[in-house]
Design brief:
Bound molecules: guanosine-5'-triphosphate, iron/sulfur cluster, magnesium ion
Oligomer: heterodimer
Number of strands of chain B: 33
Order of helices and strands of chain A: HHEHEHEHEHHEHEHEEHEEEHEHEHEEHH
CATH architecture of the largest domain in chain A: Alpha-Beta Barrel
Number of helices of chain A: 15
Largest interface: A-B, 45 and 23 residues
Helix content of chain B: 25-40%
Largest sheet of chain A: 9 strands, mixed
Strand order of the largest sheet of chain A: 7-8-6-5-4-3-2-1-9
Number of strands of chain A: 15
Distance between the termini of chain B: 56 Å
Largest sheet of chain B: 8 strands, antiparallel
Structural class of chain B: alpha+beta
Strand content of chain A: 15-25%
Amino acid sequence: MSAMRTAAKRAPEALAQQHGVYLHVPFCRSRCDYCAFATWTDRAHLVERYLAACRRQAAGAAPGLPAITSVFFGGGTPSAVPPDRLLAALAPLPLAPGAEVTVEANPDDITVELLDTYLAGGVTRISLGVQSMTPHVLAALGRRHDPASVARAAEAAHRAGVPFNVDLIYGAAGETLDDWARTVDGALELGPVHVSAYALTVEPGTALAADPARHPDDDDQADKYLLAEARLTAAGFESYEISNWARPGHRCRHNLLYWSSGEYLGVGCAAHSHRHGRRSWNVRTPERYIAAVEGGRSVEAAGDRLPEAARRVEGLQLALRTRDGVPAAAFSREDLQALGGLVEVADERARLTVEGRLLANEVAVRLRG
Amino acid sequence: MQLSRIRNLSVVAHIDHGKTTLSDRILEISGAVDPRDMRAQYLDSMDLERERGITIKLQSVRVNYHDHVLNLIDTPGHVDFGYEVSRSLAACEGVVLLVDAAQGIEAQTLANCYLAMENDLEIVACLNKIDLPAAEPDKYAKEIENVLGIPADDVLRISAKTGEGVGALLDAVIERIPPPTGDPDAPLQGLIFDSHFDQYRGVVSSVRVVAGTLRTGARLRFVQAGAVHDADEVGVRAPVPTPVAALGPGETGYLIAGIKDVGEARSGETVTEAARPAEPLAGYRDPKPMVFCGLFPVDGDEFPELRDALEKLRLNDSSFTYEPETSGALGFGFRCGFLGLLHMEIVRERLEREFDLSLIATAPSVAYLVHTTRGEVVEVDNPSEMPAPQEIELIEEPWLAVTILTPADFTGTLMDLCQTRRGEMQKLEYLSPERVELRYRVPLAEVVTDFFDQLKSRTQGYASLDYEPAGYAGSNLVKVDVLLNAAPVDAFSMIVHRDKADAYGRRMTEKLRELIPRQLFDVPIQAAVGGRIIARETVKAKRKDVLAKCYGGDISRKRKLLERQKEGKKRMKSIGRVEVPQEAFVSALRLD
Ligand SMILES: Nc1nc2c(ncn2[C@@H]2O[C@H](COP(=O)(O)OP(=O)(O)OP(=O)(O)O)[C@@H](O)[C@H]2O)c(=O)[nH]1
Ligand code: SF4
Ligand SMILES: [Mg+2]
């Protein structure tokens, strides 16, 4: 059992010792049809200044921070920017021994050299944006990476000895259940230690949102979820959060922090922080972020601190997503009854069943703080 | 005032033939309204009238013309407000019957003309809109002669828009319509033909003095109401309200007598002097509502506001009725009765607009007479109050005598329409080679759905419709219930002819399947007659409702989303354990 697993169980004192950092890279080569992230395809000229600004923000925050136990370079496409600059951005921060450091990567970018640079800089795992192993599905998602580079990237990771996650998306227009089965099996063949499988979600303002004919179908996605659950579990992966499966010892500690109401610092534009019980987020565009840092102003756009009761409920809603679940007492007796096959209770804890994971919102709205 | 110098007349016509526009010209020519204050359809004073471009309430005005006083009543043309025409006629010796020179005779032209004839009124027939390029005055003058028996040579020709011929029309009015008669010294007999509630002045009544003299300050007896009130103010609408000392016989004006409830000064009421009472006049009864629906506030908390609004509105419109109703699906509301669909639409719109309410209306129903096995006869205007099938001996439903005037080309399609609406043909007559009059008996319930829309769309708008109640008759009617997870949804119960039950059931269940959100379990939606299921749909259990991603940036968003979802649940009605958003009821009822 991993250290993290124990830590998660021993909340909240153990958690107090965890502290994460998220760094946002707001650059991509092209925009995927479903993507609503803060990312831009026409701002390559800002990369240098942007990462320098990140470094300044990190340096400024460092004195107030405990040792960092997890780092996540997310985006956007972190692998698309110079690795030395990327890693340098967080160099001012005090890293705890054995810290988990993840970089999100586009398979097209992965080379053994790049991975060596990452490893030398303290990276401990990478996350590959694979999405689908079926070319027509990739096309339907508006993804531009070359399907062939996925196997190459996995191969390079194995050679470099970097454990990796594979990100998958199901429910694109034209994706059959067979297509999805091939994607899951194909992903497993790559030899990942961790798989994230996300239901394609229609975000407002995206190209996908504007095209209702391509919107995913709930029943189809439910079938695909069950398929993924079955195949991943059979392959020795454990579902530890609604959309995340890992081989033993390979859960993503950084993400567990999110679901256990842990604290983290957000570096870069549009990055979110949770510190001292307060949630806040940075200005959205790289330009405004750079301007704020260079002008010596706060990069925070806004934030809020919830009343105690609301925080408790929020904490439960997040914890419900994980395998550890919530205290059974967080539900009324009637609700537990009404939720029938969606939650199971054992050892005073209520956990989502597989069907329950698919209906997690219905369950979550019944939580009481 | 010398009686010989008074003329009392109503302007009557089919809808849109130009009554109110003609009134504009008369107000102008007579100098009653200063040109600077003139505006089109001057007498349509309600916002709703101006927006819809139709007259809803009668308006009486007094103008001077060539040494004569003309008391003019502008009437509505729409069939729902036919009773306003009857009232107006009771205050007149003659009518100006307008006919659109580009349309010719339409259904309400006939109805209004017959009404004037029954009342022995002088009819001054007049073709309007002769300025239109499409006008065919010669042709329609002949039609008037053939159909109404008014010599073509006597039919005047005007344009209410340009004013052409309006002077000549007024001369003809003075010449042909007889002056009123009456003894100024006789005991007072005044006929109230309209009342409305004014926020500042209380009830203001329109009154026609039939005999005697109505004096300001007089102590009056309202015969039917059995109440005594003082005449605080007597006046004439010129059209600005102008107090006068007295109204003599044959004169028309207004009366304010410190009354707070229009119910005490109903149309058809007779006023006499308390000290010297006279015989009541024939009067007339308020029309009975023909169409009923439930009105519910979308926001249940607004029930008290709705009650107040109905009370206030009724002060101005005694022709609709309301009583409290409780619905399992829609909560607390009122069962309301209306003169017709337009009236229903207008009352609802006034409630929403003038009182800032948001309402749900159930599907319109009619009043059935139910003969029970216990030998009682009960009136049921709300399907959810229909007795159980085994307690029913017989159901009678209201029928209408329907008159349709149509270009001959459309006769076939209209006969087909009436046929599918269970109509029984009474008469088919060619009024001219091109114009056919169809008479049918049709159940009212079949007319209050989309009969009128169908009639218009099948004839490109050329056919016109008039109807009047034609008694009750037994029919093979059944109540269709709609069940959600085996629990009946009262708001969707409907009484229909047995032959149409399946179609209604299918339509409603299909509609609801689209509108009811998926639940945690399969939800059967059934339509049933008695215990027999006639249609069934299923809303399959919801299988997926989850946020796929929930990382640092998603947490606040997720919390808000769940909060909204929780709020939404609170606002849902629970029927048979099924959570139904109010909007689903609203849409299901609207789609009719
Ligand atoms: N060209 C032309 N149009 C006219 C004339 N008289 C009325 N109209 C138009 O016909 C339409 C209906 O006129 P109204 O005066 O509102 O008709 P109405 O008979 O009072 O209608 P209801 O009160 O709803 O029954 C309006 O658009 C008028 O402008 C006319 O002499 N010539
Ligand atoms: S690569 Fe990721 S961040 Fe970039 S556009 Fe596609 S989905 Fe969005
Ligand atoms: Mg009018």
